[in-house]
């Protein structure tokens, strides 16, 4: 099993969006990441699909005319599209067998529409909340051509890959634990933990349910300690500088 981290653009936002009380008033570019997993038997899975590729030419595509437009602005070069990142690994969208969505916000499910051959794993609670909800732009993921397998709690999806419920950012959010043969255990936090500053400053106030988000984040940290796992946060600027990025590197 092998994991590739795919850089799929940035989102420009006030830092209060990720860690209120830390750098209030500062606007930051936070990284957006999709992860490709090469499974045994050469099947392929993605964890999250990033922001829609059309944001390269139209950053206001999703939130034009809506209150979110002042808070969330995609910043994407042509090479930041998921299509480009997959092509660097000689992979076409139709080659993807599975997608694990941590949740269905626009920067985590924005290219689901490309992946019609895949089975999508989403927590049932998240799916039911997001359906027909404008906070989770349905045009990117709620399509009759896509097949969703709804999860109810923690589940082993494949040998060495486990979905971990981590509500708080949104109901039905999930993180992903991977046990890699050489690297060891990794936890893909999604937005259960945006960045290291959340832990350092006990800053959870931007989450939909701060109390539950804090509980989920502490649960993940305890799991990381037990597994001796590295945690990959959802949008950490400093961590992004040290990660191994595809196509030149991977985690095995």
What does this structure look like?
This protein has helices at 82-88, 124-130, 196-200, 210-227, 237-240, and strands at residues 2-14, 27-38, 44-47, 73-75, 98-100, 119-123, 147-151, 155-158, 161-165, 174-180, 184-188, 230-232. The protein has 252 residues and is α/β, with parallel strands linked by helices. The chain has one domain: 4-Layer Sandwich (Metallo-beta-lactamase, Chain A). The strands form two sheets. The protein has a seven-stranded mixed β-sheet with strand order 4-1-2-3-5-6-7. A five-stranded mixed β-sheet has the order 8-9-10-11-12, with helices on one face.
Topology:
Layout: E1 2-14, E2 27-38, E3 44-47, E4 73-75, H1 82-88, E5 98-100, E6 119-123, H2 124-130, E7 147-151, E8 155-158, E9 161-165, E10 174-180, E11 184-188, H3 196-200, H4 210-227, E12 230-232, H5 237-240
Parallel strand pairs: 3-5, 5-6, 6-7, 11-12
Antiparallel strand pairs: 1-2, 1-4, 2-3, 8-9, 9-10, 10-11
